[in-house]
Structure formats: C-alpha cells, structure tokens
Amino acid sequence: CVTLDVQAACRDTTVTQELLKEGFHRDLLVKVELGEDAGGCAVAAQMRLPPGIYVDPYELATLQQHNLTKAVLFPDVVDVEAPEYLARALVLLLFLEPDARCSRCFRAAVPVHARYHRPARGTHEASVVLESPEVLLCCCHSHLSAECWEPAEVDTPCSSDTSSPCQWHTAKHRPAYEESMLRVPVGLREHSSLVCALTLLTTGLCSGLILAAACKYGHFS
C-alpha cells in the first residue's frame, strides 16, 4: 500500500521526442510534461546519443550565441567526419524552455546529424536507436518531494549561461518511455566490387585528362 501511495503521489512525467526533416541532417524535438508543478526550476533532458548520430559542437556554439538553443555536450570535442564504426557515443544535456500553452510543459530542439555507416548486405538502411531522454530538474530556490525525486550525478550548472554549481534531480519512479528510430541510407555490400572498379576507372580517366591538359597547355622550362 505504501508503494502504491508513493507512485500515486509521484505522477509520471511524460517525454516525447520527434525527428523532424529528412535525410542525414535532422532536428530532434524534445517535449516534456512534468507530473507536478516545478515553478522556478530549470528543466533539462539528458540524452545519450549512440555513435550513429552526433551534434556538431561548432553549430551548437553558433546557436547558443544567438540564444536559439542551450545545451552542454560531453565530450565537447567531436570528430564530425568519423563514420559510425569509428565514432563514440555522446551525452547531451539539453535545457528546455517553458511552453506558454501548458504550465507544466517544456520543449526544445537541437540539430542532429547521422553518420555514414558500413555497407550492409541485403538492406539499404541502417537503424540508429535513440533512447528516451532522462528528465532532470534543478531547483536552486525551492525543494522537490523526496518521495518523487532523487539527486542525480550531473556535474553542470542549472543554466548554460552560468558557472555556479547546482544539484540536479531525477525522477525515482521512471515510467516506460518509448525509443525513437532513425533510419540511415547505406550502400549494398554486394555492389562493393562494382563501386571499386568504377571508382578506379573514373580516377584513372580524370588523371589522364589532367595530365594531357598539362602537357598540352603547360609551360615547362
């Protein structure tokens, strides 16, 4: 009975994420509806991005300069040219903004980019699974219910605009969130020989044309 009472008092926080646009360059929209009023608290979504997808730190810095997105990326150095099989996972702490249409609702969007994957056999697509974000609250001037929230190990301030420390909290009774799926186009492994042959042929032809032009129009002393 005690467990049921605690779960009833701690109403679930709902989280939805949506991938906007098409192709390799998308926008990830995160929407959160808290189970209780959190006036005066900072709300953030902590996302673990698998190696198949990344956030460009230079693009993120530009967005933050224009006050369009507030986020912290771990690590803050990202190889944006690496393919999926040579990349590593990232952690993104995305600060959410209040939704004017709902007092307990928050939302934010961030650009994400898919990485190139290895060619696959028998399929034109690779799947990148995005786990549901973890909702975090940072209440520097108010207190959260100990039955519903517990301290989280997040070493970052309550806002991306300040360096003062703050204690983040995460929900104790986390509901079953849904995952999102990003499908990335990949080449067929069966075409590897054909692609290599055409690449070598094209490279040789272009090199020959450049050499012929250099011999015809070049001035050699």
In short:
The chain has 221 residues and is α+β, with helices and mostly antiparallel strands. 19% of the residues lie in helices and 33% in strands.
What do you see in this structure?
Strands 5-6-3-10-12-11 form a six-stranded antiparallel sheet, with helices on one face. The termini are far apart. It folds into two domains: 14-187; 189-220. The chain is elongated and about 80 Å long. 19% of the residues lie in helices and 33% in strands. With 221 residues, the chain is α+β, with helices and mostly antiparallel strands. The model is unreliable at 1-8 (pLDDT under 50). It has three helices and 13 strands, in the order H-E-E-E-E-H-E-E-E-E-E-E-E-E-E-H. It has helices spanning 2-9, 57-65, 192-217; strands at residues 14-20, 25-33, 42-49, 53-54, 71-74, 90-95, 97-98, 105-114, 125-130, 134-138, 149-151, 168-171, 180-185.
**Sheet with most strands:** 6 strands, antiparallel
Number of strands: 13
Order of helices and strands: HEEEEHEEEEEEEEEH
| Cα Rg | 24 Å
Anisotropy-based shape: elongated
Category by helix and strand content: alpha+beta
Number of helix segments? 3
Q: Bin the helical content.
A: 10-25%
Strand order of the largest sheet: 5-6-3-10-12-11
Low-confidence stretches: 1-8
Strand content: 25-35%
Taken together, the total number of domains comes to: 2
pLDDT averaged residue by residue:
81
Question: How far do the termini sit from each other?
Answer: 95 Å
